[in-house]
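Training component of the fellowship. As part of building independent skills, the fellow (R.M.) carried out the full modelling exercise for a liganded target. The chosen ligand was acetyl coenzyme *A. The inputs are recorded below so that the supervisory panel can assess the work.
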Amino acid sequence: MSERAAIEVYDTTLRDGAQQEGLSLSVADKLAIARHLDDLGVGVIEGGWPGAIPKDTEFFARAADELQLRHARLAAFGATRRAGGRADTDAQVRALLDARAPVVTLVAKSHTGHVERALRTTPAENLEMVRDSVAFLVAEGREVVLDAEHFFDGFLLDRAYALEVLRVAMTAGASTVALCDTNGGHLPDVVADVVAEVRAAVGAPMGIHCHNDTGCAVANTLAAVDAGAVQVQGTLNGYGERTGNADLVTVVANLELKRSTPVLRPGGLAEASRIAHAVSEITNVPPYSRQPYVGASAFTHKAGLHASAIRVDPDLYQHTDPRTVGNDMRMLVSEMAGRASIELKGRELGLDLSDPVLLSAVTEAVKSKEAEGYTFEAADASFDLLVRRVAAERGLGEGVPDYFHVDSWRVITEMRPGDAHGAALSEATVRLVLQGERCVASGEGNGPVNALDAALRTALDPSYPELAHLDLVDFRVRILDAAHGTDAVTRVLLETADQESSWTTVGVGPNVVEASWEALVDGLAHGLLRRGVPSRA
Ligand SMILES: CC(=O)SCCNC(=O)CCNC(=O)[C@H](O)C(C)(C)COP(=O)(O)OP(=O)(O)OC[C@H]1O[C@@H](n2cnc3c(N)ncnc32)[C@H](O)[C@@H]1OP(=O)(O)O
Ligand SMILES: CC(=O)C(=O)O
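Fellow's submitted model of the complex:
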């Protein structure tokens, strides 16, 4: 176990995070996420509710043998004993012991309305449930954290009772009392005031557990720390019930970078982007690109004026160095680009745009293409081809090899309702000139782009066997100027991949197949170019 930080990071991704709509974790998922959390360097990993959820019972059983945690302690979460019973004979409380986790977190009522209406017992019996449950688990050698549910609402309704719940827990041996904004309805000023009052009245080590229903979970957590909380609870990527919990990645980055308070293992913060994305893969919840610090857009710049200043000093338009959280700065090329953005993007892609004439010509070409409907910010491969083509026009580079000449192409889609499989089939024919010879090839597919791709490959395979390594992996169509309905301009973004990476090309046209053809041909050309294949046309 590592030495405790002054502020303890308590992760509840595997318990409260798993309460998010649409998120369902297998035991293997939970074990994998726990390893990532330990690698990040959090202090406590709340693994779930053993005894209530069979998967969580299994998680703790396997964790005891399979997880070799280097930094974190595991916590088993559950409720206080039932009203009218005894902790030592309560099946749920015993299941918490059986989980063999060093920490047990007990959720308890601290709001008299909840005691009377949800627990349907008396405030006095609720205090006894807290005392008995905490004392029993402490006597069994567990560190006990008390999660005081609906604490802020309870405190505002009946201050004396809410404080008494905390006092009873501390007297019974709890190590920390976590104040929960269970409904997530409070703002930072109230959270700060209440935490300060609790600190003055009880003086116990306090945790803070915030939900994001007002969009203030992270701000509330920081306000609580400022007012004296020493444990921050939250979830990776802000997963959680309803609008989620405090995003622990943002909380820890703020504490380490803005408050100069180390809370993770040394070096942990630099792993934050990698771990946040790895956990997204496991949860199958797409990463949120605008997530603070670790989102793909967190250090991405689009506006020309920003890029122009960044060229002088990146810090002029970013609040912190992206490397501190393992993220990268990226430049986007779009109609908002100026020469500085284009030059920086060129540097990112390894293209030499130091010639001012070329730089201006590429900037102009980007702006005029974007006005036609092209978008380069999501199509780096098309930008790369554009730069090479503009450079070649000005005698400043070799351009893009002429891999083949297109004479014509045609595609037919046929539907035969009587057919056994009943789906439409497309058939394409391409006429190319290759090595001075005319060549005609056809291909079939379940759609026109698929058929054109098949026909092109049939024609090109003898001259370019390298194409066998390239696959078309994604295809996105967007109608621009939708007011024109089926007459509108169409934009196609097409992703091609080889074994190492993928790249995106863009095509625009009044006809979806025409736009797709442009993106398809450029996707293959870029694939050949990046493999260093010379023209054999
Ligand atoms: C704020 C939070 O997010 S806390 C975490 C919430 N997480 C979950 O609820 C997920 C796991 N929950 C479960 O699997 C089930 O709800 C269980 C196993 C805990 C309970 O299931 P059941 O016994 O079928 O009861 P049910 O869910 O209908 O009601 C909850 C019971 O717990 C009692 N209860 C609620 N809060 C507490 C508490 N803090 N301490 C003790 N008992 C409590 C309720 O009074 C109710 O008792 P009752 O059955 O006598 O009416
Ligand atoms: C304990 C908990 O998850 C809450 O009160 O929100």
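The panel noted the following from the submitted structure. Residues 49, 52-53, 79-80, 82, 107-109, 118-119, 149, 182 surround acetyl coenzyme *A (ligand 1) (CB under 6 Å). The radius of gyration is 30 Å.
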